[in-house]
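fwd from M.: "can u put these together and see what the complex looks like"

so here's what she sent:
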Amino acid sequence: MIPSNVLSRQRTRRGERAAMAGLGLCALVSVLVTVGIVAVLAGETVRFFADYNLVEFLTGTDWAPVGGRTEGGELGILPLLNGTLLIALGSLVVGLPLGLAAAVYLSEYARPRVRSVLKPTLEILAGIPTVVVGFFALNYVTPHVLRPLFGEDDVFVFNAAAGAIGVGLLVVPIIASISEDALRAVPTSLREAAYGLGTSKRVVATRVVIPAALSGITASVILAVSRAVGETMVVTLAAGNSPNITVDVFESIQTITASIAQTVSGEVAAGTTRYRSLFALGSVLFLLTLGLNMLSARFVRRYRQVYQ
Amino acid sequence: MASITLKRGTTRRTRQLVLDAFFAWLLFAGTLVASLVLAVLLLEIFQTGWDRLAADPVDFLTRFVSRIPQRAGIKAALVGSIYLMGLVALISFPIGLGAALYLEELAPRGRLANFVEANIANLAGVPSVVYGILGLGVFVRFAQMGPSLLAGALTLSVMSLPVIIIAAREAIRAVPSSIRLGAYALGATKLQAMWTQVLPAALPGTLTGAILALSRAIGETAPLLVIGAAVSIFSVPQGVGDQFSALPLLIFNWTGRPQPAFAEAAAAASIVLLAVLLAMNAVAIFLRNRYATRW
């Protein structure tokens, strides 16, 4: 195939140079955005760690900022990491079975008519604003589902489980659509071979197709975790603002993102340690999600490579 | 097919059949659960908010916020969201489309192009709250725009940009190279072929993707929260330098209040937000079905 860029008229007309430069500038903006994010985060984070010990930040077990004062109080990230982890794992507990079931059903079992109804439903779920899901988690899931099931005394008003259920809902479309792509990418010949040996659809799905699509499914799970880690509104509304280290999902916790939201909601003066902790948390968040996304991309490449 | 009798009356074959049917139903049920929860969610929002909204919709839409929930309205937030929508569209569509055109048509293939593409893919996965922090640091503080409408619009535009670029690139890639080659054969420059052939063909797909990206941006709260958008403002922004509010932010604020009447108000505002999103998505789907070029 002849590269098409040598076939066009090579002498540009007047003004075309400028137009192409303009377009190039637009593309440059995307690079500038990354530069901006890194610059803003790194700049303030470095200043933060000039005031606050890095080791204490990473290993401290108390997140107790003190108003807007420069001292900032105790700023150990572990309780926030605990909260984020609870939410991420909890959302997988909710989202993985539902998302995977939907993916397998849509790719192996569903008739076109059923597909045309179920797929848009998942897309709608993906489009619901996170505040609305947070409202639902706080005002419906906790009082009408969790408390009746698990007891008024054990379930706090703000609890990690409600947050995890809300985020789980948001994560179902991610797992469903990427897993479905991976399942569909498995060549029909593999399925046909299994059917030829006399197995049922169930065996083909569980013993042939799912294992073959495993890297794609893994990619979807990693991406779901990344989404759960970065989710702010659902957890701020429903999971609470009490940083503590616990495994009790019915307790109130605080995630990294909720802490950021709380810091900006209060009166925090610029230049204080409290203000800068915002950027330190942002850096942690950015690095976490970047790492997860890149890991997920690696798995996507793997399953694309094998079959295409 | 041979069957092994395990106990009187049961064969292995029967057990397999039962398991097959059970599995199929399990999957179907699992798929339904998500749809069911969605239905419950929407029902709950409507049940909580409809009375508040339907009692006096004009009142709800034209009043400003108040400490008394029965007298609170969404005027500032609704107008703020609409202004934001317009500004974000104005800023992010051209830049996103321009970037995609450059990256697909004009940029030399190679390591740099691959790096830029990977960079955009990574940016698309960055949490919205981090974009808020970016907006706070660059637009609000460094550029000294303060928590203004412009700062909010720029922050949301930057957040939507990667998604728009990806959508535009897909649309441009879908244009067959025969179209370009035909133009070149007639003596066109790259830019001429791009402007007269590729761009019109890729526009519907790009617009669809862009409108979807925009509808996501309008529903986002975290970035606006971080840059300091207001909740209690009692005037509509007159210029881009003014303070502003937005629907999702208002819903967040009202949901956090203890009075049940505010929960109703929040639900009512949610209905309005969902209606706006529904309208935008309907437009996007209409565009896709009506104008998508079929090769």
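replying to her w this: Residues 16-51 of chain A form the longest helix (36 residues).
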